[in-house]
Write a structure and sequence with these properties.
With 287 residues, this protein is an alpha+beta fold. The protein is built from eleven helices and six strands.
Length: 287
């Protein structure tokens, strides 16, 4: 392959790496906007990191775009709706790679039905190649964990679809987690409830149990990360235990005033006096 042709192909692939990510994430975002009524956030070039990104908003669609290719880490689509059905999750998940495949198909039709000069053909082929690679990489289940910016763990679209197909096992996973918790096997309980959250994140009880199990084994990092998402999605549904758990995490972080406020909320809601007073006293010593 001549050097100039190879250079054009490589530059095209580099450019289409950006474009393919945009296509893929829009494939997630468009059905998410159509099937839910809340905001949808798309991160292009990161796994949820808004820093050093160009931000813009179109109606309910919020976008963060990183231009620095040296820090490019794929993309992420986040639905802010609380009650997301399995059907909606399935459609939103599969439409990302399907849109990439659709664009690749259109590119192939154009190449086979129209005449272009060699450079144009090479550029279109680079787009087709990039979209096909995106489809394959995302549709083949991969157990490699992706660490999101907020500390949570995610998997590629193919693995997420497998989890959705296995949704009938949610009840069993939940029962196993509760059983581990009752047996005071808190590490296993935490692992099980976190696995449950990867499959179903539409109910506050799953977050509550995952946070509680992590606190029982002193894993404040995991508890904090799960609590952050829990607070963003279900703060209006907080119960006594939720305010206590949030306060405990804040105590560990040295946020004593915030912790005290949450302990007082739990007390006002009818928390066990002896238990909550213990936490209140600890917080007051540092305020």
């Amino acid at each position: 392959m001549p050097l100039d042709v190879a250079l054009i192909f490589m530059l095209s692939l580099l450019t289409f790496r950006l474009l393919t990510t945009v296509i893929h994430e829009l494939g997630h975002a468009i059905p998410a906007l159509l099937l839910t009524k809340k905001k949808v956030t798309v991160y292009m070039g990161s796994l949820g990191n808004p820093e050093k990104s160009f931000q813009f908003q179109l109606g309910r669609l919020e976008c963060f775009f990183k231009f620095n290719l040296f820090y490019w880490r794929g993309g992420l689509c986040v639905m802010h709706a609380k009650d997301i059905s399995v059907r909606t999750s399935f459609i939103v998940t599969i439409c990302g790679p399907l849109l990439s495949l659709l664009v690749a198909g259109i590119g192939i039709l154009i190449l086979t039905n129209y005449e272009f000069d060699d450079v144009t053909k090479l550029v279109i082929f680079a787009l087709v190649f990039s979209c096909i690679v995106d489809f394959i990489n995302n549709m083949i289940p991969n157990q490699t964990m992706l660490e999101l910016h907020n500390g949570m763990i995610a998997y590629n679209d193919g693995t997420h679809l497998v989890h959705l197909f296995k949704n009938d096992s949610v009840e069993k996973i939940y029962s196993d987690g509760v059983s581990y918790f009752q047996q005071e096997k808190y590490a296993k309980a935490a692992e099980t409830f976190e696995k449950l959250l990867m499959t179903r994140s539409d109910h506050e009880v799953f977050y509550r149990l995952a946070i509680q199990a992590n606190l029982m084994i002193g894993n404040y990092t995991n508890a904090k990360n799960i609590q952050k998402e829990f607070s963003e999605r279900f703060s209006e549904a907080f119960e006594i235990l939720d305010f206590i758990n949030l306060g405990r995490i804040q105590l560990h972080e040295g946020l004593y005033e915030n912790a005290l406020q949450n302990f007082m909320k739990a007390k006002d809601m009818g928390a066990d006096v002896e238990e909550i007073q213990k936490y209140i006293d600890i917080a007051r010593k540092h305020v």
